[in-house]
Amino acid sequence: MGFRPQRRMPDEDESGVRLPSIGVEVLPLWVTCVDVGKFLPMKLVFIAALILLTFRLVLGFKNRGRLPPGPRGLPILGNALQLASVSQIWLIFDKWKSQYGPIMYLNLAGQHIVVLNTKAAAIELLERRSAIYSDRPKSIVGEYVGTALTMPFVRYDKRWQRMRRAAHAVLNVRASAQYQPVQIEEAVIFAHKLLYDTSSPLSTKIARSASTMISTHYRLLQTLCIHSPTLWLQWKRNAKRTFQQTTNLYENYYNTTVNHNNQQPNLCVSLAENEVAGELTAVEKVWVTGAISAASLDTTTVTISYFLYAMSIYPNVQARAQRELDEVVGRSRMPTFDDMTQLPYIKAIVKEVLRWQPVTPLAVPHAAMEDDWYEGYLIPKGTIIFPNVWSMNRDQETYGPDADQFSPERFVQKSETGDAFVLRPEFENNDGHYTYGFGRRICVGRYVAENSLFITACTILWALHIEPKANATPNLEEKHREAQDILNSTPDFDCHFSPRFPEVERILQDTGLAA
């Protein structure tokens, strides 16, 4: 089944981007009634609303026996109140998994929600049936402020096809190799900052090393998670301004990078020069670069934070990785990508961090484009589908009884000679986790991200010894409960970094100057 273009929006701003009209068909029932009330006596409105509500409830009861199992909710509100006070809903979904099984149904004030708790369900629906599960949920407010152009959130239409094809052209396995020299340079600079910048908190150093766009992207994320806007009028007044400000930010980022290129490969230059990217409009092109750069920020910030945290509290893992580096790389030079195939334990560490603490524990939601059936259960058209990555990444049948723990050993085994590690055969060409998503919506930048995480981990472990500072180890379960973002929270901790051997400082300095 091919792409299904969405209905064109009637409003269009000066940049050529179409914005959604506020038609009756896209508003929840109670908002619809308010609009109709301008033209009908309130008594008739009340009667009409009551009839529609009764019809919806009767239809809901009729279909309830065919829907997947899930927690019982209230009339009209469904399960909304059960989730209203939960900061990280993936934790309660993980708890409910044992009661309701691999596929779970929720009703949020009339909106169908299906949570996929197992890889089997996710692969069947989001990959094998990707033709009808590759759409994104409609977000009225979000489309006004940028989801219509933020590639991970773009609806499954011709625009998404153009943007995805262009991004793939400059981020695929082969293309990702061109960014490796820059990634090595950034890893060296980061290691240098960890060692010598003693005035900044660790979290600040990590964020600065990832991107200076961090604050803007987090504001955007808070906007994008709004599905049904109850405060619509307040948002509408500022929506076009917010969208234009974000477009200007991304455009400035894109133009500055292209115009001041120092001959090093980067995403902006690649898109500017790539023939496939020529299909994009000017606005689409700057949003592709901005959104991908912002998404890579989240992956880098969260994953590197948990990598450093894990190395500080698991000194045996740190020591084992450093032994592998000493045997393969030695101490006279820094690691490069040429060493990757000989460093399976480092690769296992990267896989394990991404599995243990995924950046988006529920992934970006999909949407069903038509009615479908799975294991005898109805999934109605328009249902929002949440892949429960947190539960999949901690499935004991796949990862063993210690799936909640950090253990890179789950991905490796002893070599035939018994003196080194090799990746287990099932993980040689497998991510070993589900953090990058599924199907046609799988993370387009995963190869670049994987390379960046690998060389950063190699460089830090080769150069530095990592120790936790006194009273600086967080309670991760409490951190998860406190977090208020749609992303996994970063651990609030601090480390002490010291050179592993005397030559480190000189080699760091020489390599940094050469880069």
UniProtKB/TrEMBL annotation:
Source organism superkingdom: Eukaryota
Positions contributing to heme binding: 443
InterPro entries from the UniProt entry: Cyt_P450, Cyt_P450_E_grp-I, Cyt_P450_sf, Cytochrome_P450_fung
Chain ranges passing through the membrane: 44-61
Subcellular location: Membrane
Keywords of this entry: Glycoprotein, Heme, Iron, Membrane, Metal-binding, Monooxygenase, Oxidoreductase, Transmembrane, Transmembrane helix
Pfam families assigned to the protein according to its UniProt record, in alphabetical order: p450 (PF00067)
Predominant localisation class: membrane
Biological pathway: Secondary metabolite biosynthesis
GO molecular-function terms, A-Z: heme binding; iron ion binding; monooxygenase activity; oxidoreductase activity, acting on paired donors, with incorporation or reduction of molecular oxygen
CDD domains reported for this sequence: CYP64-like
Membrane topology recorded in Swiss-Prot or TrEMBL: Single-pass membrane protein
Family assignment from sequence similarity: Belongs to the cytochrome P450 family.
The protein, known as: Cytochrome P450
Annotated source species: Lentinula edodes (Shiitake mushroom)
Taxonomic classification: Eukaryota, Fungi, Dikarya, Basidiomycota, Agaricomycotina
